[in-house]
Amino acid sequence: MPELPDDWESTPEPGWVAPELGEEFPGLGLLCTILETGSGRSPEALKEQLRELSNRFGGAQAVNLRQRPIPWAYRVFFRHIGLDPDGTPTPVEQISLDRMKGGRFRSQNRLDDAIVIATMETGAAIRAFDADQVNGRIGLRLSAPEEKFEGRTSPLPDGTIVIADEERPVEILFGASAKSCLVTSKSERTLLAAIQVKGVPQVALEEALWLAASAMRA
Amino acid sequence: MAELLERPDLPDELDLVPEEELGNLPPAPPPGLDTVLYEHDDRLARRDLRRQIAAMEAELGELFASAFPRAGIEFQVAGLGGPRILSVDELEQVRDALAARLQDVKGELHDIGYVEEKHRALIERMTEDPAAYKWVRVSNEHIGEPGCRHWHSRPRWGVLGMIMNWWRVKVSSGCPLAEGVAPPTVTTS
Asked: What are phi and psi for residue B29, nearest 5 degrees?
């Protein structure tokens, strides 16, 4: 039997959730995993996977997307937190819109392609950060009064839901990310975080992270 | 007469709330913590509103799917700016906006469905008696179906058919073939 490499399967770890958020939104959570790789050009195998996915996902699937349980759960959560899922599409809907407009899933880079595949296969929302720029474990919390956010001149509105490390916010939930935390071709480690909301089973997040991690290593 | 209205067996002042009910009321919160009770109540209200929003979102999703391929129906419900925890008032706004949108969409679909039904009936009548519906053309779009098919009442053999009153309904399925993306233009310097 061939010997398996140490990182043959990623082991996801739960992120923390601030108590006020957890009490308000039962089922909200994060599941994270760290990969010892950054982004870069997509290998041909990944591009082939995207082409195959493009053939499987067409207009009929896009129209019925919001009736599927997981995309619906994200839409509902968007409504609950004051976002309009038609104005700010959920991750899976944004990718399907791009597919419809572009005629196919266009290959961009290894990380984005891996996220597209994982998101379309499972419906789960995945975020990626440069693991070396993140301080400690990440989680979900509300922004403090007058809290600054990288790349923003004005402070965050009080009570904004953010993904944060142990020092600062790294992303406005389903919004902009701190520039220094973005994964680039120079990044050596990638932190993948799947966002769980009520109605999204943990197994879907685990599968999404596993798919993304496998695609990143392809 | 006045003595008839008097009830000597009752005390002068009545306790309108029985003692046991008074005992069920929550105690007044200590100073400085007087928001706890009301926050708790709000949370239940917010939870209930979120449940209603989820149900309406599901219904709107079903209508969205059933409305396809009809265009021009507005499904969007504006957000309130987030991501953040919405208050009861704001959640009520979202719920009310969703309810209004649901009503609008249902109304529009009902109206469209009525017109489509009329067009289906027209196709049947055209097919039975093409001469009575000269040059009338009904497309798939008119009956709420995808594709480019249309029913067209036309004379057989052109002018001769018009003179002889030989009319028929011609069914076309002529969607243009997909041409694909144009190849990139090669510029030579």
From this structure: -70, 150
Q: Which two tokens stand for residue B44?
A: 């239940």
Q: What is the DSSP letter of A7?
A: T
3-class DSSP state of A117: helix
Q: How far apart (Å, rounded) are the C-alpha atoms in residues B22 and B4?
A: 32
B80 chain-A contacts, CB cut-off 8 A: 82
Distances (CA, A) of A157 to A11, A168, B81, B84, B124: 35, 15, 10, 9, 61
Structure-token pair, residue A118: 């994982």
Q: Which residues of A touch B54 (CB under 8 A)?
A: 76, 79
Going residue by residue through chain B (189 aa), what tens digit of pLDDT does each one get? 444 445 455 455 444 444 444 445 545 545 554 444 445 568 889 999 999 999 999 999 999 998 888 888 899 999 998 899 999 999 999 999 999 999 999 999 999 999 999 999 999 999 999 999 999 999 988 998 888 889 999 999 888 888 888 999 999 877 777 666 677 776 665
Q: Does A142 touch chain B (CB under 8 A)?
A: yes
Given the DSSP bridges, would you call strands A190-196 and B137-139 parallel, antiparallel or unpaired? unpaired
Please state whether A174 falls in left (phi above 0), alpha (psi between -120 and 50) or beta: left
Q: Quick one: closest CA in B to A80, which residue?
A: B50
Helix H or strand E segment including A214: helix A202-216
Chain B residue numbers with beta carbons less than 8 Å from the beta carbon of A20 are: 85
Alpha carbon of A213: minimum distance to chain B alpha carbons (Å): 28
Q: Best residue in B36, B39, B57 to probe A by mutation, most A CBs within 10 Å?
A: B57
* Pair A155, A207: CB distance under 8 Å: no
Beta bridge partner(s), residue A191: A34, A129
From chain A, the residues in CB contact with B81 under 8 A are 82, 157
Task: Say if the Cβ atoms of A79 and B78 lie within 8 Å.
Answer: no
